[in-house]
Design a protein that fits this description.
heterodimer; A: 364 residues; alpha+beta; six-stranded mixed beta sheet; six-stranded antiparallel barrel; 9 helices; 22 strands; B: 128 residues; OB fold (Dihydrolipoamide Acetyltransferase, E2P); six-stranded antiparallel beta sheet
Chain lengths: 364, 128
């Protein structure tokens, strides 16, 4: 038996098909992954993401520690704002990607569940010489409510203070209301909020939102939604051997402050000057479905080359297969993807594939 | 519980066969479509291709994964279900009716005896 979130019983009651996900028993869908996907694009759905690892960082040196640990610079954002960033190793490879919430007296990090042990070890290992308290918060649950109607529903269903916070907060803003942290963040490309709250309170909020017409959404649709939004998945699209430059994450690396010597900086600066593959989107022109680890044949002014898909799926919104792929720099136009010994034509694009429920990709 | 019609024959790889004279109509079972989730693409064999029983005959792809389909009996493909090109979800919605995949003109109807009955197929999925 795997770990169970406080919403395990609620998932069974909703008819979820449960699967093992990084050691957790999680809902993959509640009947139809495609319907769940469309629900989030068109109205509002909610995800149990309590399996994700929440880590609080406090102490006098927490700011200095995080400016050392993270490739993005927490000084770029003010209190009450969230920042997306990578945590790198000395080679510039991605240990994990995460969101850090900058609070008044502490920082809260949400890291991936599959990398929990590695991340906590890494964070402890980098803390030498810093007066910081790094504390995992397994007592907390996390519910993401996403979709064009998500914030309006939350405003009605939450208490006055939390409702007001949801209404007024800017994109990537957050507010703490009692023990709850409410943030305008997500992993679907839609507007919405993520709520981190005591585990014991999660079933009540879940039920209240269900009663208000918010549909539960499984991890299957979470994956197709994030891929349509052009958002990377750790372990697929980047890992310990891939730098942010090769994973479309250059925008999350803050090099402005030359004095800031974050882990991986020197390797990254060296790597930036060299030829390296880049991540692009693919939209399949033929019928079929793109999957991770398919070989991509490219042509550019530098000649013939090869690349590989890192994530791939059928896009329910576009009705076509889409993928993220690591390709030789300079690849444009069309490429051929090898699927079961056939070569199918795909267009090279700049993600996101879908924005506000509509096709949004640009040819490269 | 998935539906397993008594009059059909099954393979352990989750195909079903309905016999119409010397023609075998082939599809995938309700259990198989449920395990795969929403289907979004079906890659069919070409009409005229000759299979031996057990040959790879096509692929069904759901949002999650791709899964091979095997020819349950030997013979020539004489028809494919063209409706699935635009409506692969028929396999989810009506696995034993509108969601059939292809038809094989059987080379040896004796092979049917080697296939599973509904009860045997039920036992197999119970033991999986």
């Amino acid at each position: 038996m795997g770990h169970r979130t406080p919403l395990y019983d609620a998932h069974l009651a909703a008819g979820a098909k449960m699967v093992d996900f990084g050691g957790w028993d999680m809902p993959i869908h509640y009947g139809s992954q495609l319907e769940e996907h469309h629900t989030v694009r068109q109205s509002a759905g909610m995800f149990d993401v309590s399996h994700m690892t929440v880590v609080d960082v406090a102490g006098n040196d927490s700011r200095a520690y995080l400016r050392h640990l993270l490739a993005n610079d927490i000084d770029k954002v003010g209190e009450g704002r969230a920042l997306y960033t990578c945590m790198l190793n000395e080679r510039g490879g991605v240990v994990d990607d995460l969101i850090v919430y900058k609070g008044a007296d502490q920082f809260r990090l949400v890291v991936n569940c599959a990398t929990r042990d590695k991340d906590l070890d890494w964070m402890e290992g980098q803390a030498g010489g810093y007066a910081v308290d790094i504390r995992e918060r397994p007592d907390l649950a996390m519910i993401a409510v996403q979709g064009p109607e998500a914030r309006a529903i939350l405003e009605q269903q939450l208490c006055d203070a939390a409702g007001k916070a949801v209404r007024e907060m800017p994109f990537f803003g957050f507010e703490t209301v009692g023990e709850w942290l409410i943030a305008r963040t997500g992993y679907t490309g839609e507007d919405g909020a993520e709520i981190i709250l005591p585990g014991g309170k999660a079933p009540e909020l879940w039920q209240r939102l269900l009663d208000a017409g918010v549909r539960p959404i499984g991890l299957g649709a979470r994956d197709t939604l994030r891929l349509e939004a052009g958002l990377n998945l750790y372990g697929n699209d980047m890992d310990d051997d891939i730098t942010p430059w090769e994973a479309n994450l250059g925008w999350t690396v803050a090099l402005d402050d030359a004095e800031r010597d974050f882990v991986g900086r020197r390797a990254l600066e060296r790597h930036k000057e060299r030829d390296h593959p880049v991540m692009r989107g693919l939209v399949l022109q033929d019928k079929g479905v793109l999957r991770p680890h398919q070989t991509v044949h490219t042509h550019s002014e530098n000649g013939e080359g090869k690349g590989e898909t890192t994530s791939g799926t059928f896009s329910p919104t576009l009705g076509q297969a889409i993928a993220l792929a690591r390709l030789p720099a300079g690849t444009t136009g069309t490429v051929e993807v090898e699927i079961r010994n056939k070569r199918l034509v795909a267009q090279v694009v700049k993600p996101p594939f879908v924005k506000k429920g509509q096709s949004s990709y640009k040819p490269v | 519980m998935s539906e397993i019609p008594a009059e059909l024959r099954y393979r352990d790889s989750h195909e079903w066969v309905r016999v119409e004279d010397d023609v075998a109509v082939v599809g995938i079972t309700d259990h198989a479509q449920d395990a795969m989730g929403d289907l979004v693409f079906v890659e069919m064999p070409e009409v005229g291709v000759v299979f031996a029983a057990g040959d790879e005959a096509g692929v069904v792809e759901s949002v999650k994964a791709a899964s091979d389909i095997y020819a349950p009996v030997s013979g020539e493909v004489i028809a494919i279900n063209e409706a699935l090109e635009d409506e692969p979800e028929l396999v989810n919605n009506e696995p034993y009716a509108g969601g059939w995949l292809f038809k094989i003109k059987m080379a040896d109807s004796g092979e049917l005896k080697e296939m599973l009955t509904a009860d045997q197929y039920q036992e197999q999925i119970d033991s999986e």
